[in-house]
Amino acid sequence: MSADTTYDLNWITSVDDHIIEPPDLWVTRVPAKYKDVAPRVITEDDGSEHWVYEDVKNVTGGLGASAGRKPEDITAVGFPYSEMRPGCYDARARLEDMDKANILASLNFPSLPRFCGQLFYEAKDKELALICLKAYNDWMVDEWCAVEPGRFIPLAIIPLWDPLLAVEELERVYEKGVRSFCFSENFEPLGLPTIHTGHWNPVLASANEMDMVLSIHIGSSSTFHRISNDSPFMANFSLGMIRPMGCLMDWIFSGLFQQFPNIKIALSEGSIGWIPWVLERAKQVYDTQRHWVKKGVALGNVGPVQDYDMRIDTELIDIYGDYREHFYGCFIDDATGLSMIDVVGEDNIMLEVDYPHSDTTWPNSLSLARQRLDDANLTPEVQYKILRGNAERLYQFTPSDPPKVAQVQ
After folding, report:
1. Does residue 183 lie within any of the structural domains?
2. Residue 201 CB-density burial (10 A; 0-12 exposed, 13-18 middle, 19+ buried)
3. CA 146 to chain CA mean position, Å
4. Could you give the C-alpha distances from 227 to 95, 232, 359, in angstroms and in order?
5. Which CATH number do you get for residue 221?
6. Which of 45, 337, 387, 403 is the most exposed place for a label (fewest CB within 10 A)?
7. How would residue 279 be classed by pLDDT, with cut points 50, 70 and 90?
8. Residues 215-230, buried b or exposed e (16+ Cβ, 10 A)?
9. Is residue 409 part of a domain?
10. Residue by residue, what is the 3-state secondary structure of 240-307?
11. In whole numbers, what is the pLDDT of the chain averaged over residues?
12. CA distance linking residue 262 with residue 279, whole number of Å
């Protein structure tokens, strides 16, 4: 861009928000014979609500429907839909809430299916699971995103139980305009093969060919880091970056970027302040350890080093280059990471609002973001990249013109 370019810094494109699925999403979209086993909401005698799928009951809401509540009013117990902000589950109401926080566009992860569709993978009836999964993707594109084109970035889920079916679904939703899908930070805890086995190569090959972004949300392994069995919950909760940190290292040393050079990965809700240190440490390990590791010398239970040289050409690994080429860090509020933007990369970070979760900055999202960007002494060009430019480029998304009803902060 030319030196006299004026950057509109009054809008955010958020790459991590969440939908609390409306109660009728599946029962109105599956064949009649499945209505009694498809995901549906039931109300108990005490007024509490639950999602039920097959014979499993899931509690709704809680931390997932916290927008607009004071921290002291948030509870881990589910809120009924009547007590949620309508923006949690209704797209038009969501747009009103987005306008209040100067959020121009939003990418939303699922809630009931979980962050990469684990619910349908765990289901007994895989025929029904595939119907429900496709119904979710169609609803996401044809109804949620279609309410106002240019405001919502579509995000799909895939059938985790069959990579070839996953490829078919990726091709199907690609034709509907989807350019990103949910993927797991670590498949092993789910009982699935890891990225190192070749099991996921058909999916990765499709993503590589179609330039579809792997959106990998914290918690997509259905696990959360625990320091010890009796560690305080808030101590464990403070270390949420452990999973995306492991994901980043797993991919960089996997050799997969040599096979699939177009792969792009967004580490959703992982923060960015840890990235400079872990890259530095990885470079130290690479420079000092790779020679004896390549010889196949075993080292306790650290890993199968005897197979290492068969999987990876270590001389082609470029720690910092691979990060800059393939990864995007996503943050809600991270002054530390912004202070190290020379390492994190001005082209590799994106902003999240996390509506309607308990970490959300809504409705003060823009004012807080602008404060952090100003404190980091970033130029208008770099601020624009972080606020929205990087996200719109990565997700190949053209937002609509900013709504005139919103208040510029």
Report:
1. yes
2. middle
3. 21
4. 39, 9, 21
5. 3.20.20.140
6. 45
7. very high
8. bbbbbbbbeebeeeee
9. no
10. CCHHHHHHHHHHHCCCHHHHCCCCCEEEECCCCCCHHHHHHHHHHHHHHHHHHHHCCCCCCCCCCHHH
11. 91
12. 21
Which tokens is 392 given?
Answer: 């719109």
- Tokens matching residue 297: 């010398």
Label residue 182 by pLDDT band (50, 70, 90).
very high
Rounded Cα distance, 272 and 261, in Å = 23
How many angstroms separate the CA atoms of 71 and 9, rounded? 28
Beta carbons of 212 and 220 less than 8 angstroms apart: no
**What's the total number of domains in the chain?**
1
First-residue to last-residue Cα distance in the chain: 25
Say if residue 12's pLDDT is above 70.
Answer: yes
Cβ count near 125 (within 10 Å): 14
Read off the pLDDT band of 314 (50, 70, 90).
low
For the chain, how many residues are written? 409
Question: What is the band of 289 on the pLDDT scale with cuts at 50, 70, 90?
Answer: confident
Tell me, what's the pLDDT at 256? 93
- Which of 151-160, 218-227, 346-355 has the least mean pLDDT? 218-227
**What residues make up the domain containing 173?**
12-55+86-394
**Residue 139's Cα: distance from chain center in Å?**
19
- Please state, in angstroms and rounded to a whole number, the distance separating the CA atoms of residues 13 and 174: 21
Query: Quick check: is 322 in a domain?
Result: yes
201: closest CA among 245, 148, 254, 244?
Answer: 254
pLDDT at 266 over 90: yes
What CA–CA distance (Å, rounded) separates 268 from 394?
Answer: 13
Residue 78 belongs to some domain of the structure: no
